[in-house]
Amino acid sequence: MTSPRERMVVSAALLIRERGAHPTAIADVLEHSGAPRGSAYHYFPGGRTQLLCEAVDYAAEFMAARLAQAPTALDALDGLFSDYRKQLQRSDFRAGCPVVAVAVEAGDPAKREHSDAMIERAAAAFARWRQVIAGRLVADGVPAPRADDLAVLVLSSFEGAIVLARAARDLEPLERVHTHLQALIGAETSSTGGKRAPR
């Protein structure tokens, strides 16, 4: 069974994903997680900033693990888009990426000490995902410099497609980007001998 602290971190990530970083208050996290009242500053002496930073870390590792488990780069790509397709539909297009929410919203010049900490965590999350995607491509035979270029393209296209899909309340942008990235990654890995794992 997860601890109240772990539940709070997961709840914060889920709430940020749907509401954004600014509207996600500690009281909301306590209610969502079912953690005892008054426990927030026991578990997170750094307050809301620490909680949001750890939520970003959780989201970063969760997605990195999902990508790393895929047998091929194409499987990783398909899993990524499939997961978010379901999340968008289940949430009535409210569920975005919590790391993007933090990166976009953590820019208050009056609270640099809080903003900088969250932006650093968001940057680390994106760097981690880029590394995992590039590593998966290298394992499929794509040269490292090219794999890194493709990882940036995949990550930025994926995140952008989510934003467009949420705004339009339509999966079409996600589907189009997925189709084009499938063709690109398929061509890159087939030319190097990489193959999709049998289903």
TrEMBL record:
Q: Establish whether keyword Transcription regulation is in the entry.
A: yes
GO MF entries = DNA binding
Segments forming domain HTH tetR-type: 12-52
Q: Does the keyword Transcription apply?
A: yes
| Keywords assigned by UniProt, alphabetized | DNA-binding, Transcription, Transcription regulation
All copies of domain Transcriptional regulator LmrA/YxaF-like C-terminal, residue ranges = 74-180
According to its UniProt record, what is one Pfam family this protein matches? TetR_C_13_2
Tell me the domain of life: Bacteria
* Name of the protein: Transcriptional regulator
Its source organism is Mycolicibacterium chubuense (strain NBB4)
